[in-house]
Design goal:
The structure holds two protein chains of two kinds. By secondary structure, chain A is an alpha/beta fold. Helix content of chain A is 62%, strand content 14%. Chain A has six helices and six strands; from the N terminus they run ααβαβαβαβββα. The radius of gyration of chain A is 28 Å and the shape is elongated. Chain B is 30% helix and 45% strand. In chain B, helix 1 runs antiparallel to helix 2 (111-134). Classes of the chains: A alpha/beta, B alpha+beta.
């Protein structure tokens, strides 16, 4: 039978763990609110951008010699997988889920005989992908210095991707991140960034008219497409940040509850043991007295 | 009352303006153009410049940099990479930034640093040029 002192220590240690998880949950909750606001504030820009590009792109369809960012390089031999995860752990299945999604995709591509390159954002995903795909990882972006995600934080990544695309290092680029739906659900999403793909229903009906372009169509597309990469990336990072906090909040809430249950059961054991010790001592005294 | 133009100004970080106004003068790459209600659909990229928003007797001026404007039957949407109300611009602070940026360019140790520093400097020079024009 466990002795009383051990049990007391155990209870104290679980209690302090519970305090930590509770604090982490509250911090995550307040960060979540801010991250969610930021993600929602960024949505209009990305959406408008998409609808403008979609209308532009739909008018370019079928034209030869369009920008490569839209039409692709004409082959799909080398895939670049960008995996965006968090810098910190203790956020439930957040990182695991994103990495799992990316792994599935990578495995499928490799099975199809394609070449795969990996770029990671955030060290958690990098750490777990490094085990299997170290040779394929070509670049890692550290976001640990970022306190409040700004557009300027997404730019270096976008610039790198665009430069690599220009150099012909890959043909297709897919981004993995977790789309924020609520604190309980985050959806792992893979988004094809290069060549750009658009939903046809995003196109605004011009009522028969056509756009006037200033300067001309191709030039605008050439200016917009690279920017679009940055914007989509920025949006993904914001969604990711909100998802991370949401996931952490849920995970820490569960941990706090589990710690509470554990404390309850430990306390029952402790009280029982204490009672048993007292009963034992009494029996010893009484039987000792009887023997005399 | 005459019908108004629905105008939205968005930066990557947030929606800055969403309201119905009389007219907006947009600094396009090929010259400023005014947008009133029922303007023909158009897409134009922006140059660094001043955006004027006219509503009644009210004129709001904003400095915009990078991005583009889209006019469709629903109204005018401006996607600017940067947009700051003129009232919030602190010229002295910008000049101090430029001085720092120049020092960074001079101190750059490798190509990467030089490119980064140049980018920062070019941005400030562009903004100050625009301010010079208005002043």
């Amino acid at each position: 039978m466990a002795n009383l002192k051990d049990l007391r220590n155990r209870i104290a240690s679980v209690q302090s763990t519970q305090k930590i998880t509770k604090a982490m949950k509250m911090v995550a909750a307040s960060k979540l609110r801010r991250a969610q606001e930021a993600a929602e504030a960024a949505r209009p820009y990305a959406e408008r951008m998409e609808s403008v590009l979609a209308s532009l792109a739909s008018s370019m369809v079928g034209q030869v010699g369009g920008p490569k960012l839209l039409g692709g390089t004409g082959k799909d031999d080398v895939y670049l997988v960008v995996v965006a995860t968090s810098e910190r752990g203790l956020c439930g299945g957040f990182n695991t889920n994103i990495v799992k999604g990316a792994r599935l995709k990578i495995a499928r591509l490799l099975a199809e005989g394609k070449d795969v390159k990996i770029v990671t954002i955030g060290k958690k995903g990098a750490a777990s992908l490094r085990r299997d795909y170290k040779s394929r990882m070509i670049k890692h972006f550290d976001m640990s210095h970022v306190k409040r995600l700004g557009f300027s934080d997404a730019m270096p990544v976008a610039d790198y991707l665009l430069a690599a695309f220009e150099r012909g290092e890959f043909d297709v680029c897919t981004l993995f991140y977790a789309k924020f739906q609520s604190a309980l659900t985050q959806i792992v999403t893979d988004q094809q960034m290069i060549p750009a793909s658009f939903d046809a229903d995003k196109v605004v009906d011009l009522g028969g008219g056509a756009y006037d372009y200033e300067p001309d169509e191709t030039e605008i597309l050439e200016a917009l497409l690279p920017r679009n990469v940055g914007v989509q990336l920025f949006r993904a990072l914001l969604e990711n940040a909100a998802s991370e906090q949401g996931s952490r909040m849920t995970a820490m809430d569960n941990a706090t509850r589990n710690a509470g249950e554990m404390i309850d059961s430990l306390r029952t054991t402790y009280n029982r043991t204490r009672q048993a010790v007292i009963t034992n001592e009494l029996i010893e005294i009484i039987s000792g007295a009887e023997a005399i | 009352m005459a019908e108004k133009l629905h105008f939205e100004l968005v930066s990557p970080e947030r929606l800055l303006i969403s309201s119905d106004v009389d007219m907006v003068v947009v600094p396009g790459v090929e010259g400023d153009f005014g947008v009133l209600i029922n303007h023909a659909p158009a897409v134009s990229t922006l140059r660094t410049g001043i955006l004027h928003v006219y509503d009644g007797d009210d004129v709001q001026d904003l400095l915009v940099r990078g991005g583009f404007a889209e006019v469709n039957p629903n109204g005018l949407t401006i996607l600017a990479e940067e947009a700051t109300p003129m009232a919030d611009i602190d010229r002295a602070a910008l000049e101090a930034d430029l001085k720092n940026a120049n020092e960074d360019v001079a101190d750059a140790k490798n190509e990467q640093q030089l490119a980064d520093a140049n980018k920062v400097r070019d941005r400030l020079v562009e903004i100050l040029d625009v301010l010079d024009l208005v002043a």
